[in-house]
């Protein structure tokens, strides 16, 4: 993890740094997270580390223990499906309620994101693809100005992204499919076809779940 340079609060930066390390798989499931070591690695005191760990626990990424270091939360198939169920409800509601508020600037940013997704796929850079994928959904989550809704969608995306990290060898197949589904959603939004955009989002999220279940079953049977 990179040492922190103070721009935003130390707790926010510690939160983001540790979260990124968990999502990227640099911190393994059930790995201990001693406050003293994290503070040393990030070049800050233990107080913002403690606050960051509490926030990560609230997102389901970290488990806090009494008299023992916190640990990275374990990943399970059921937990990923639970995240996915909630993610569907939130993201579909967001499109249904807020698609009419989509500005030209946001559409421009979504197009830029799609270009980044395609470049990542063509470069076989699937870590970058996952970053673009998550950013794509968060760009849509913010169109209605409901900060809490956007935060919840972010949390659910984090849980689902961890599921696909477990199945990272499947990304060369699933990434292209996801990209094309994203393209279709943006095209519908550009045409102001909200109902079509909603149906395409439903199809996309259903396919994300199907891909996960298909590949997870394959991993279990190896």
Automatic annotation (TrEMBL):
Keywords: DNA-binding, Transcription, Transcription regulation. SUPFAM superfamilies: GntR ligand-binding domain-like, Winged helix' DNA-binding domain. The keyword DNA-binding applies. Pfam families: FCD, GntR. It comes from the Bacteria. Coiled coil: none annotated. GO terms for molecular function: DNA binding; DNA-binding transcription factor activity. PANTHER family: GNTR FAMILY REGULATORY PROTEIN, TRANSCRIPTIONAL REGULATOR, GNTR FAMILY. This is GntR family transcriptional regulator. It comes from Psychrobacillus lasiicapitis.
């Amino acid at each position: 993890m990179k040492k922190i340079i103070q721009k935003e609060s130390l707790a926010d930066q510690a939160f983001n740094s540790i979260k990124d390390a968990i999502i990227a798989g640099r911190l393994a499931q059930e790995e201990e997270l001693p406050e003293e070591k994290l503070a040393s690695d990030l070049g800050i005191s233990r107080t913002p580390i403690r606050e960051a760990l509490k926030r990560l626990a609230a997102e389901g990424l970290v488990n806090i223990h009494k008299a023992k270091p916190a640990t990275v939360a374990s990943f399970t198939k059921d937990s990923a499906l639970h995240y996915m169920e909630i993610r569907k409800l939130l993201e579909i509601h967001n499109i249904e309620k807020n698609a009419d508020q989509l500005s030209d600037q946001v559409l421009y940013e979504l197009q830029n994101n799609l270009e980044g997704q395609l470049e990542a796929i063509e470069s076989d850079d699937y870590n970058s693809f996952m970053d673009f994928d998550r950013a794509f959904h968060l760009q849509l989550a913010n169109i209605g100005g409901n900060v809490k809704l956007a935060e919840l969608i972010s949390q659910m995306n984090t849980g689902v992204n961890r599921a696909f990290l477990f199945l990272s060898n499947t990304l060369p197949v699933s990434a292209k499919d996801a990209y094309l589904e994203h393209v279709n959603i943006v095209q519908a939004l550009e045409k102001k076809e909200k109902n079509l955009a909603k149906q395409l989002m439903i199809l996309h999220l259903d396919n994300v779940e199907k891909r996960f279940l298909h590949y997870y079953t394959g991993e279990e049977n190896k």
